[in-house]
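Action item from last meeting closed. Structure (117 res):
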C-alpha cells in the first residue's frame, strides 16, 4: 500500500468513475519498494466489483492518459503469463516500452513467496 500514491490519485479530477476506481485500486496495491503494482485482472475484478472487460477498457484509457504503464510478465518455470506490472510514471522511471519480465519463484506451503521454488 502506498499512501503517497493514494493521495496523488485522490486529488486527480476529470476521470470517469470506473477509471478513478481502477486507478485508486492500483494506487492502493502500488509497492514503493518495487515501483509497481501487480494485481491480476481477476483480483482487480473481485475487489472492485467491475467486470474484467470494463477493467481492461479502463486500463487502456488510463494508459492513454499516461497515468499508468503496463508491462507483461511470464513465469520462468513454465513460460505461462503472470499478472501484469502496473507502473505509475509520476513516481519514477518506467522500463523501456515493450519490456517483458520473467518472474521466478512460487508461493511455499505457508503462502510466502520463495524465489528459489
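Sequence:
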Amino acid at each position: 500500500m502506498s499512501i503517497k500514491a493514494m493521495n496523488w490519485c485522490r486529488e486527480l479530477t476529470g476521470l470517469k468513475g470506473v477509471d478513478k476506481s481502477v486507478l485508486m485500486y492500483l494506487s492502493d496495491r502500488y509497492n514503493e519498494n518495487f515501483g509497481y503494482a501487480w494485481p491480476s485482472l481477476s483480483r482487480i475484478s473481485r475487489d472492485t466489483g467491475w467486470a474484467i472487460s470494463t477493467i481492461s477498457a479502463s486500463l487502456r484509457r488510463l494508459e492513454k492518459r499516461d497515468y499508468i504503464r503496463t508491462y507483461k510478465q511470464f513465469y520462468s518455470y513454465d513460460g505461462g503469463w503472470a499478472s501484469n506490472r502496473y507502473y505509475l510514471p509520476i513516481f519514477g522511471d518506467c522500463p523501456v516500452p515493450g519490456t517483458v519480465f520473467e518472474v521466478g519463484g512460487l508461493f511455499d506451503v505457508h503462502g510466502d513467496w520463495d524465489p528459489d521454488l
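Note appended to the action item: Residues 17-29 form the longest helix (13 residues).
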